[in-house]
# Entry
Amino acid sequence: MHETTPFRIAVVDNVRAALAEDIGTGDISAELIDADRRARARVITRLRGVFCGRPWVEETCHQLGGKIRAMFEVEDGDRVEPGQVLFTLEGPARDMLTAERTMLNFVQLLSGTATLTHHYVDLIAATGATLLDTRKTVPGLRLAQKYAVRCGGGRNHRIGLYDAFLIKENHIAAAGGISAAVKKARNLYPDRSVEVEVEDLDQLAEAMDANAEIALIDNFSLEDTRRAVALTRGKMKLEASGGIDEQTIAEIARTGVDYISSGTLTKEVRPLDLSMRFME
# Structure
């Protein structure tokens, strides 16, 4: 994913916006430092987690003139421990001070997303279910957070409204029912996957009869989830969603669903606590 053109464009745009927001008309605090002063610094984590954010660090260095050199001790997706050095920086002291907050903001948020994802993946590791993210992301950071989910061991659901159908309650009502909505989706974009959100077993049966590929069973009880698995086995995929947290996810996964999606991965994130310190 990180080699694709849309991803590269997103990283460049993310960093450009963050630097513009932070620097504004100029970093007046950095002007206290002699322009020819060079420095070295270490970035460490104070918390255990999963590291993520290298492309944003490297792009920050690039957009500030390319004079900062970043040397990484870890790669995206690596587990890290409190006190561990994540990367070292060398370059003009002014540039490093200007870059500091932008770099750390990206790394701490994305590492937090990767860390939480890894925790949830561990909770369902023995079940065969796959953990998916959602579109509940920070505006402007959709591809960044979805990249972090992958670094944490999860998988991406659709990226946006354009790459797959997810026919929800209001779509169904406005289109005239599940069957009508699925039929029109097939006619409009036959190469796109079709998923239908259902609220009960009757709607699930209708989605199955309409030949939808995936049913999103929203806020089903455990018993109804088991019934849904029995009803659809070998006929369509099931995605469980709604009310997913670390207390419920394993039991839901053990019902036999194919996927579990959770907005928690990208909207209830505890950023990794990071620190940058100049070295003597």
Observations:
- The domain at 122-267 is CATH 3.20.20.70 (TIM Barrel).
